[in-house]
Amino acid sequence: MRTVYPWQQSQWQLLQEARNQERLPHAILLTGPQGLGKGDFAETLAQSLLCEHPLATGPCGECRYCQLYQAGSHPDLTRIEPLEGKKAIAVDQVRGLAHFMSLTSQYEQYRAVIIRPAEAMNINASNSLLKTLEEPSAKTVLILVSHQPAQLPATIRSRCQEISFGAAQPEEAKAWLSERLGPDRADLDLLLALADQAPLRAEQLSQDSLLDARMELFNAFEQLGGMQVSPVAMAKTAVNDGAEWCLQCLYSWSVDMVRLKSSAQPPSLFNPDLQGRLLKLGDLVDARQLLKLQDEIAQAKGDLAGNVNPNLVMESLFIKWQNCFRAARRKIA
Ligand SMILES: [Zn+2]
What is the pTM of this model? Predict the structure, then answer.
């Protein structure tokens, strides 16, 4: 039976109470970091809205409406997502929503719309959605999902009830992950630290070979610090592994280096397994430079999202890192 994750209980309760009191908002915006299962929460909520005999914990999973949902053919649910191969949600997709909204429910239950990720709507799509938000239909709930709500127009945000999700409690996250991966895994803490306590992200890390790729990239990064590899070669490796994922690694290393520099006590790290090596590497760059490099990483992320050639983005970033390392080496020498 479909239920929400253990770390989503309070958000679920909030909406359940509103539903019981028939005060459910017309538009709900689910926000929070990636990897916490906001999309699954949206699906559970939608199915529960459609369900004929919803339970306090979620949809019944057995009624005819749940069966329609499970078959992917419930006429009162629609999802708006970027089309295959596209990054943005186009205006035509949202215009189609107006038609859906104008229909009446096929059944007695609620109707639901899931828009995910909401920040993928381009400006025209957002404007079109605004009209829908201004004229809500009875018993229809729009569920927007976003991990970058700051990118949404304020006019949209202000018309939604925002439900935010924070990182899971470490114990809760570990218990869940252990159930998923088996209790014998020795790297649960590491996976969760790398995923910033986002359990679904941690599970994903365990499944693909990303952990190995991360070690390889870190080895190369150390070599960059030792002037043993060129930024161009390093960029090539990074793009092969997935530039966005590499930026995430790089960011977590630089944050850890700052933490190691500025804390007398052993700090909590994203990369506890690399502590000694990060400490050494961090000695080559001062904290101010590290913070500047973190801004550069954020900028690089934006460039990638803006379709700049990933090779160029990564090369220019690694050149900046290498310049910092080189300057520090000169100082030491
Ligand atoms: Zn049901």
Answer: 0.77
